[in-house]
Amino acid sequence: MTWCCPCSSSRRDGTRGPGETLPRSGRKQRRSLRVCELLLAIFLLRIRRLWIYLSSASGKGCQESRSLERCLPLRPGEKDMLELENLELWCDPVARNGPENMAVDSWLLGREVPVLRTYHWKGNWGSVGYFGEVEKARQVLPDVSLVRRATGGGLVDHQNDITYTLVVPRSYDLAKAKGAESYRVIHSALAIALKKNGHEVELVGQDSEVDSSSCFEKPVEWDLIDKFGQKVAGAGQRRTRKGLLHQGSILLGDSADGAGILSRLAGELARSVRSLEVKPSGEGFPALVRQFSAASWLERR
């Protein structure tokens, strides 16, 4: 940095006698000095801000770089909120179409039992969020069948993803938490599970400025990205009188061990995990399938 020093005026000590005025060149030098002082103040302020950021890298300073080592374990008190006492893990063996998969998730929410479900799709399917625009989705995925989710979020192509659903009854703290908080807690657990499975990921500290309706082209706060900045996990949520419905998608390629990842996620979410084998039934289930199959539901936005 260049430091500015004013030259001496008519007197060697820079003072003026009575009635003397500062020459025009002296006034310019004084203005130059003030500009230099202002630049120095700005420089020192930036240095101070940088020091504060670096000194708090393990806390708020990791907003811009959410590495696991910096930002995990969870914040004080969140471990208890994260850990469910019991969790049912259902590796649904039946490949279903879009409306059926959405109906199963809503049916599980009605059971009011904590459950983590991983499932498959029958045919080529994509899903749009509750507030998504179907016409835009058709332009992005013209050769894929579409279904509207009950949860929020963007357009998701399910042809190559690992799809899962977490249901948490209303009585649990995780279901009572605010949307951003429960999203962060669940994705923190997923980040740990992915790391244990050999995938290096980071939590996103803020929404991306990318303008896209596609979920995996627009990372938002608390999504997961890989070391190249590519989004690898996102989700949508919905809260009802029954509890929290969290529908998630993980995109890691064909070689990813989906069952292993979800099994580890279950272990991070609960103290006790047991396998579940269930067949959706009851009078309400066919009605749910009809609801998600209806054109009026798909075209509602």
Please state the CA-atom Rg, rounded to the nearest Å: 28 Å
Find the structural class using helix and strand composition: alpha+beta
Overall geometry comes to elongated
Per CATH, what is the topology of the largest domain? BirA Bifunctional Protein, domain 2
- Count of helix runs: 10
CATH class annotation of the largest domain: Alpha Beta
What is the strand content? 15-25%
Number of strand segments? 12
Classify the oligomer: single chain
H/E topology pattern? HEHHEHEEHEEEHHEEEEHEHH
The CA-CA distance between the termini, in Å, is 57 Å
Sequence stretches where pLDDT stays below 50 over 5 or more residues: 1-20, 51-73
Q: Name the CATH superfamily classification of the largest domain.
A: Bira Bifunctional Protein, Domain 2
CATH architecture of the largest domain: 2-Layer Sandwich
Largest sheet: 9 strands, mixed
- Tell me the number of structural domains: 2
- Strand order, main sheet: write it out: 1-8-9-10-11-7-3-2-12
Mean pLDDT across all amino acids: 80
Helix content: 25-40%
